[in-house]
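Hi L.,

You mentioned the student needs an example of a multi-chain input paired with its predicted structure. This one should do, with 414 residues in total across all chains.
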Amino acid sequence: MNRRTRGPGARHEERREQIADAVLAIVAGRGLQAVSQTEVAARAGVSAGRVQHYFPAKKELIEAAFDRANARSTARIRRLVGGDPLTAPPREALTVVLTQLVPHDPETRTHLRVRQSFTALALSDEAIAGRMRARYAEFHRELAVLVRRAQDAGAAPAGLDPRTAAVRLAALAEGLAYYVLIGITEPEDAREQILAAIADVHGERPA
Amino acid sequence: MNRRTRGPGARHEERREQIADAVLAIVAGRGLQAVSQTEVAARAGVSAGRVQHYFPAKKELIEAAFDRANARSTARIRRLVGGDPLTAPPREALTVVLTQLVPHDPETRTHLRVRQSFTALALSDEAIAGRMRARYAEFHRELAVLVRRAQDAGAAPAGLDPRTAAVRLAALAEGLAYYVLIGITEPEDAREQILAAIADVHGERPA
DNA sequence: ATCAAATCAATGTGATCGCATCGTTATGAC
DNA sequence: GTCATAACGATGCGATCACATTGATTTGAT
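Structure written out for the whole complex:
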């Protein structure tokens, strides 16, 4: 129907995303504690009043930014896989999803910095924690499906429980990702380890 | 010589540790952003002036708390292993060091919450980041020594590069630890996965 | 005993924060 | 056209923060 329901402009969702993106940029650069109405408004190139209008409470602003980050991440994965990861070739999908977790370009680096800030916030903010748990539940479930399909396709002999293998892969990838982020591991090394772990799931011997 | 160099009491280091511990308690409970002079003073049971006296700048207070957390962690590991981990039976030391990373009692849970807060801070605070890198360098080096000794002792056939294996083990353990912390993985499951990974390093087939 | 330095508490200060409030403007419904 | 209302900008307010300042007190050294 109407693209604009009310008021001037009224590209409501668009504006919200623009502001949420500004929050993410600040978080990536200087952390969550640097997020304030003034800071966000300046970064987004809008008035502080507008920020407050779209997000009456700071809590909502932060949560919107978190959701926005997840949406961006999901979109990026889908773009790289070329569709729904669950219907893509399982091994390729596994490789993309897991290697995208480790920072290797500005975009992934920024995303992981943001994510790391929110993981800390989740420890003292139940609203974020709930979203985080839901996000991980979906993530691990999706990974488990991929692992199972990969096992079925390959010549996996015994076959580890898909769910367990999925969690193991994710944990390894996330741990390595943080090491890369703080600069104690090279992106290439992390990637190699992840590929080896994926090969292991396929019944091949890891390097 | 003199335990007290100057002034009343002058149990300088002791007081600093007491205040640093208060900081850690606050971080564990409500996160880094809840740390303020007033809050710390109240938690430590001292005047706000004293906090300021021992830590003229907040930056120093935070860094002292970080160092304190590391010292506590090191002491706990040594206590559990019963001496220097590097001279203990390698497989036992590996098991202790890695399984202690995942939260399974109030102490380890608190420690990991604190650690998680600091990992986020390290992304926007170079002083903390430097300390963090140094800490990990030592941690991974120590793990690598243990892995090498474990490989020598066991019947490991080929033998993965000890350094690579060490990083892999640590990454897996830390990833699992965070999953446990936010409640999407059970402590027992995480422990099992870690034990399996250690067995793998020893040349045994993982479960 | 005296003194200098360390310790400590109390108060002040400027800045910043989240949020409330108020007034103006722009827009769509009628 | 008019009217209700969303959109928006600007300003105000109370709270809190890190840090500075001040002054009193306690100790060890001499």
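You could point out the following to them. Residues 85 and 97 of chain B are 8 Å apart (CA to CA). Residues 2, 4-10, 36-38, 52, 56-58 of chain B lie near DNA strand D (CB under 10 Å from a C1').

Best wishes,
N.
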